[in-house]
Amino acid sequence: MQNPLRRPRSSAPPRQAAEPRSERTQRGDPNGDGYLNRDVRAHLVAMSGEFVGTTLFLYFAFAATQIANTLTPATVHTLDQLVFISLAFGFSLAVTLGMVLTGTLPALRGALLFLPQMLGGMVAAGLVDCMFPGQLAVQTALQNGTSIAQGLFIEMFLTIELVITVLFMGAEKHKATYMAPVAVGLALFVAELAGVFFTGGSLNPARSFGPAVANRSFEGYHWIYWLGPCLGAAVAGGYYKWAKFNEYEGANPGQDDSHQSEEDDKD
């Protein structure tokens, strides 16, 4: 006689109920698969994206500069060469510092992005040095009689222009925010036009550090390519905070009002 308390062989064991997603999230494991915490993964994605973006941007910028300086020596600038080099560059480590100082980027995220940006600059310079024939000719240097003090303040003021544009067009949210990439690109282009002839137009420690590492050559005034952009980012960030404190929107009331709302007011 079959034991009524014994489970038949063919029956499957009872399945345990899945742990509620809310409890997994509280334990820092939103996917329930034992993978990294969501914040850690977000930082890793941001760092990898910064490294890839920096490497690609600077690789093509260095390649264009290598071509320009190979066709025409860097000590004999022409207008075509200045425009060609100015069009090539497109990012800055000083912008990250400016956003951290103004609170538009968390300090931890900004600190984590520093290393990928520096590594990206070194990798980009190394790739151009390996792939293109001849001596790497993309290193920033003071030229045409520019003194160290002049070079420092040139880099500072060029960076002020760039960081202010990024903060008011990109970090600040308004109806023209979608135009931020165009505005930032034009700001950097103008800054490069003004700076390439005198300092090489760095505006970015990673842009100067990478080629210096690849060439194994650091000028005695290399520090201006760090201090100048950092001072510029601090000044730009200070002005941004001052304008926000004084509610700069009041200088032009209704600037974000739509045309439709104006028509409704008339009716």
Write the layout of secondary structure elements.
Elements: H1 21-26, H2 38-71, H3 79-86, H4 93-101, H5 107-131, H6 148-171, H7 180-195, H8 205-215, H9 224-245, H10 259-266
Q: Could you explain the architecture of this structure?
A:
By secondary structure, the chain is an all-alpha fold. The protein is built from ten helices and no strands.
Sketch the topology as an H/E string, one letter per element. Answer: HHHHHHHHHH
Rough outline: globular
What fraction of the residues are assigned to beta strands by DSSP?
A: under 5%
| Class derived from helix and strand content | mainly alpha
Q: Gap between N and C termini, in Å?
A: 91 Å
Number of helices: 10
Q: What is the tally of beta strands?
A: 0
Largest sheet features: none
Low-confidence stretches: none
Rg measurement, Å? 26 Å
Task: State mean pLDDT (0 to 100 scale).
Answer: 79
What percent of the residues sit in helical stretches (DSSP H or I)? 55-70%
Supply database-style keywords.
globular
Briefly summarize what is shown.
The protein is built from ten helices and no strands. With 267 residues, the protein is an all-alpha fold.
